[in-house]
Amino acid sequence: MKEFWEESFIDKQEMWGFEPAPSAIITKDFFIEKSIKEVLIPGIGYGRNAQIFKENGMNITGIEISKTAIDLAKKHYGDGMTIYHGSVTNMPFDQKLYDGIFCYALIHLLNVDERAKLIKDCYNQLKENGYMVFIAISKSAQTYGKGTYVCKDTFELFGGVKMFFYDEESILAEFGNAGLIKMSLIDENYPFYYILCKKGQ
Fold it and tell me: What's this model's pTM, rounded to 2 decimal places?
């Protein structure tokens, strides 16, 4: 998996561009409303979704498996963000507690055990009354059911990427014990779920 993302990263950078995703903008506004200052971004990539939080006075810590992505983040956005080089499956990378977590289009690339660990690890690194947002692909995506069947709602696509597709039932099953307070569909090239949780809920 790491090699796939490393090799294809430059192409993906060009595809994604440098504008933040709509869900990052929505989350930024929500974090400002809740006076959130310390934000953890697992799977920060090259920083396009992180910069908007940083520009609005938030301190950013990221986790990223691709050294190429980290180098690009530093090139384009400077050294104002702490980024740990490693896989989110190896969280936590520090003992800090955050009042906001934003995880974009990553969790559906993990298997069931890895997803459970990521949710638990993120929840454990939230301060009391902190919020975490996950953006995850929906079963309503055109790619659902395509490629090679792996297991329930999981298919291998795009030359080796195994992708799990969420519906409301699976969101409740995986996030129900992690302070789930909202799930809604948001269209960002693909139909995604916007999943909002609060610690202490």
Answer: 0.91
